[in-house]
Every structure is written in C-alpha cells, then in structure tokens.
TrEMBL record:
This is ABC transporter ATP-binding protein. It comes from Arcobacter arenosus. Belongs to the ABC transporter superfamily. It holds the Pfam family ABC_tran. Residues 5-216 form the ABC transporter domain.
Amino acid sequence: MSCSINLKNISYETSTKEVFKDVTLNVSHEEKVAIVGSNGSGKSSLLKILAGLIPPKEGEIFLFHDKMNSKKDFRAYRGDIGYLPQDVSDHFLCPTVIEDVMFALRAKGVKKDEAYENSIKMLEELGILHLENRNIYDLSGGEQKIVALAGILITKPKIILLDEPTNALDEDAEIRIINILNSIKKSMVIVSHHKTFIEKLTPTIYKLKNNGLEKIS
Ligand SMILES: Nc1ncnc2c1ncn2[C@@H]1O[C@H](COP(=O)(O)OP(=O)(O)OP(=O)(O)O)[C@@H](O)[C@H]1O
Ligand SMILES: [Mg+2]
C-alpha cells in the first residue's frame, strides 16, 4: 500500500505518566481516518507527534516512506502538512481574516490578486465571507476555528491533521465542513468526539487507548 503516513509502535509520555504505547497506523494517499478516545487519552498529543511538533518517546514515523528522525526531517514536509490544533487561539499570524488566509499562499509566492481571489472563494465555501475584514481576535471561538481551517485547506496540503474541527461549530458550519472535507482526496487524520460528524467523513475509525489504537469500524 502506498502510504503518506506510517506510524510504528509509537509511545508517548509526559513528565509524570505514560500516555500511550504501541500506536501503529498506516494512512494511504487518499484515505481519511478518524481517531476517537477519552479525554486525556493522548489524541492531541498523537496529532502533534504526526505534525512534528513534539517527539514520541519511542517508535518510528514515516512520511511518504521517508523516516522522520528529528524535527529537522519534518521541516522538509512542512508545506505538505496542514495541522489544525485543538486550540487555535495562538495559531494566527495576521490581524484580519483575509490577510491571514492569504498569508500562506503569499508565502508560497502566489501573486496578490490570485491569493485574494482564492481566499475569497475559500471563505465563501466555508460560509465565512462576511468575516473577511474582521479582526481575528474579535471573533468567537467557532469563527476562529473555521478561519484557521480556511488557512490550512487553501494551501492544499497532502496530509491534513484536524484536531476537533467541529467542537465549537453550529450545525450549518458543520455541514459545510463535511462537504468540503469530503471533496478533498488527501490523507486526513481527524480527531473528534463527534460521532455523527466522523461517520459522514469516513468508515475507518480508531479508538486511542493506552496500549494502542483499536479499530472500531
Ligand atoms: N504540555 C503538557 N505537559 C504535561 N502534560 C501534558 C501536556 N500536554 C498534555 N499533557 C497530558 O497528556 C495527556 C494527553 O493529553 P492530550 O491533550 O493529548 O489528550 P486528548 O486525548 O487530546 O484529550 P481531549 O479529548 O481532552 O482533547 C493528558 O493527561 C494531559 O494532561
Ligand atoms: Mg485533545
């Protein structure tokens, strides 16, 4: 199987306890997998490990069959990974919504007009065009989460890691996000407590336990 992500026997511990061990996971190029689990089971930590933000205690991580031994190895794939944190309050780099969504495209060398047009399209698709010129720090938690998602999806990353994308969203926003995520054929790992949301995205669901991932569907 040609995979974007392979995790082999990953374990993780904090300064005070072992959180999980023996996490093994393969995600192929267009596959979406969901991860559920109790509060504190380590779902967010696992996504941070996958994004190269924190190291595991043990185990091996391969991105596109390339072994990641350090943060430096992850740097080569920075443009390929889109990571939505559970808490997006520290995530933004620009003051206004449109500037922030355009930022990643501009950083990739996309011309201003094209970056603006694409960003407007993305805001429209996510139902947040009315927020275009708003200051991000004046937005609600749910609004901030959708803006962060817009900034991630617009760069078309090959691997998309989403930590509770709908935890603060209303029903309409959730439906728009389901539609847009279903239209994206990329590797996706979605962490969520929201069963009906997950089931509309993927049949492949794992539960994170302290001794590994259990496939529950
Ligand atoms: N920076 C940190 N320092 C110490 N312990 C931490 C740190 N970050 C997380 N932990 C601990 O690691 C464990 C796993 O946390 P994590 O946030 O990954 O869980 P989670 O499954 O995402 O939980 P939730 O469903 O509440 O989001 C928890 O016991 C948490 O207290
Ligand atoms: Mg979490």
